[in-house]
Amino acid sequence: MSAHFRKLALIGIGLIGSSIALAARRQGLVDVIAIATRRQETLDEARDLKLGDIYTLDAAEAVRGADLVILCAPVGAYDALARIIGPVLEPGAIISDVGSVKEHVVKVVAPHLPKTVYFIPGHPIAGTEHSGPSAGFAELFAGRWCVLTPGADVPADKTEKLAAFWRAMGSKVESMDAAHHDMVLAITSHIPHLVAYNIVGTVADLETATQSEVIKFSASGFRDFTRIAASDPVMWRDVFLTNRDAVLEMLGRFLEDLSVLQRAVRTGDGASLEAMFTRTRAIRRSIIDAGQETTAPDFGRPHEAPPEPTVTFVREHGGGDDA
Amino acid sequence: MSAHFRKLALIGIGLIGSSIALAARRQGLVDVIAIATRRQETLDEARDLKLGDIYTLDAAEAVRGADLVILCAPVGAYDALARIIGPVLEPGAIISDVGSVKEHVVKVVAPHLPKTVYFIPGHPIAGTEHSGPSAGFAELFAGRWCVLTPGADVPADKTEKLAAFWRAMGSKVESMDAAHHDMVLAITSHIPHLVAYNIVGTVADLETATQSEVIKFSASGFRDFTRIAASDPVMWRDVFLTNRDAVLEMLGRFLEDLSVLQRAVRTGDGASLEAMFTRTRAIRRSIIDAGQETTAPDFGRPHEAPPEPTVTFVREHGGGDDA
C-alpha cells in the first residue's frame, strides 16, 4: 500500500502539525504541503521554519485539491473548521485529525463532511511539553503508537493507506472504536494531566516563602509533574470539555483508591502501603518491556559532574588558593 | 573548612549509600569506608562493586572509630540501628542520615546517642527510580540540594564540616528546621509519590484487556507516573508512616483543589480549566530557571530515528524488495 499523497493540508501547525510536516517531507510521503493556521504570527513562524509549500490563513484554500487533510488545531476549533472545509473538500480525500479525544471529534466533524470523502479520526500518542511550530521534530512519532478510529462505512484500503502514511513516519498503528480509545486515554493521559495540573496548582497556592523552597527541592518528585502540567492549556481545556464522561468515570476510580491510601496513612497501616507500593512495579516493568520507556535512571536526564577533587588537607594547612 | 574524614561508616548501602561511597572516594574525602548492611547478599554485592574497605553485617563494628557515620537504611530501621551503634560511637563523631523525613528521625535516633557525638540529620534531595548498591553513581548529588537539620545544641562548625563534605560531592547545602523540612517535602515529594502510586494502582485494577492497552499507550502521560511509582516500596512505606501529619495536611489541600477541578470538568467550565492550566506554567519556568530541570523535551528521552525514507511509488510499481 502506498503511503504517498499528492497534497497534504495541515490545519493547525503546533507541535504535532509541524512534526508531521517535517517527517512527511523527510520520508518523501507528499509532494506538496499546505499549512493553514488561525494566527498570522504562527503562519509566519511556520514559513520561517520552511515547514511547507503553501501558507494561508484560509483553511478552505489549504484543503482545495488535497488528497489528505489532517486537522492539527485544538479540538475546540474542529466544529468551525469542519464547516469551513466541508464544502470544498476534494472527492476521494482522506480527512483525519490528531486530537486526544475521538468520540467528540466524530460528533462535531462528521456532520459537515460530504459523503464523497473518507473520515478517519486519528491520535498519535506522542508529544513533549513544548508547543508551537518550532517545537516539532521529524522523530517525534518514531516507535510511538498512532490510533485510528475509522467509522464502519470507511473502506479498509483507505484506513490502510492512512496507516501506511503513519508507519512511514515511524509510528506503530492500531485501529479501535472511538469510545474505547477515549476510555483508555482517560486513564493513561487525561487523569495524569489533571492530577499534575492539580498538584502544581496546590503549590501555587502556598505562601511565597514555602513556594520558593518547593521550587528549590523540586527534584524530589514534584519536578516531573510540572513537566506534564506545562503542556498546552488550550488543548487540555478542550480535552476535559470533550471527554467529560470517561474522565469523570476514571477520576471516580482514582479518588476511591486514593481514599484507601489516605486511610492507610492515617491508621499507620504499613503492610497495606508496602503491598500497594510493590504491585505497581510490575506495571512499570511491562511498560519498559513494551518499548514505551527507557530504563535509564532519572528519565535519562543529564547528570553534571561533581567538582574537581578538592585536596582539602592541603588547603586547610596553608592553601588559601580559592581558584 | 575541611571536608575530610578519617573513617566513614555507611549503615545501609542502597542507591544513596553507594552513591556517597563512590562520590566520597572519587573526591578523596575519606581515608576508609566501612559498609554495614543487614543482608549478606547486599553486602556481597557492595564488595563486588568495590564500594568500600570494610564490609560487615554488624553496624556496631562499622561505626567503631568512625568520625562520620551516615545512616542510609530505610527510616523504619533507624530505631534499632541507633540502639546498636549508640554505645560504641567514637566521641566527637558526626552522626547523620539520608532519610526523607526528619522530625521522626530526631525522635527515634537522638535518645540512643551519647552526649559526646554530634547528631546532624540530613536529606540529599536526589535519587532515581532504581534501588540497591549497583544503582549508585558518583554524580548523583551534583547540582542537587542537601538539607541539614541540626539541633540547636550542635556547634556551627560541626554542621559546616558536614556541609563541606556534601558540597565536595557536588551538592548545594541548606539548613532548616526539621518540621519545616517535613512540610516542604510532603508537597514536593511525598504527595507526588502517593498520587503516582495511586494512579498506577488504579490501572492495576482495570480488566486485563484494557490494562495491556494502557501499557501500550503509556507514553501519553501515565509512563512518567510509573517511574515515580517504581521507587523503593519499603522506603516509601516508611516515609508515609513517619511523616503522617504533614502528608495528611497536604493531601487535604490537594483533594480540595481536585474537587474544584472535578466540578469544572463536570459543569464544562472551560474558562476555569484554562486559567488553572495556564498558571501552572509559571512554576515550571521557575524550576528550570532554578537549575533543577532541563528544558530538553520529553525529559531528554532519546527519540529513535524514523525508518529509512521509503520511495513508495517505486516499490508500488514493481519493487518487491523488502530489504
Automatic annotation (TrEMBL), chains A, B:
It is an enzyme of class 1 (oxidoreductase). Its EC number is 1.3.1.12. It catalyses: prephenate + NAD(+) = 3-(4-hydroxyphenyl)pyruvate + CO2 + NADH. Residues 6-295 form the Prephenate/arogenate dehydrogenase domain. Belongs to the prephenate/arogenate dehydrogenase family. GO terms for molecular function: NAD+ binding; oxidoreductase activity, acting on the CH-OH group of donors, NAD or NADP as acceptor; prephenate dehydrogenase (NAD+) activity; prephenate dehydrogenase (NADP+) activity. Pathway: Amino-acid biosynthesis; L-tyrosine biosynthesis; (4-hydroxyphenyl)pyruvate from prephenate (NAD(+) route): step 1/1. Keywords: Amino-acid biosynthesis, Aromatic amino acid biosynthesis, NAD, Oxidoreductase, Tyrosine biosynthesis. Residues 314-323 have a biased composition (Basic and acidic residues). GO terms for biological process: tyrosine biosynthetic process. InterPro entries: 6-PGluconate_DH-like_C_sf, L-lactate/malate_DH, NAD(P)-bd_dom_sf, PDH_C, PDH_N, Preph/Arog_dehydrog, Prephen_DH. Residues 293-323 are annotated as: Disordered. This is prephenate dehydrogenase. It comes from Devosia soli.
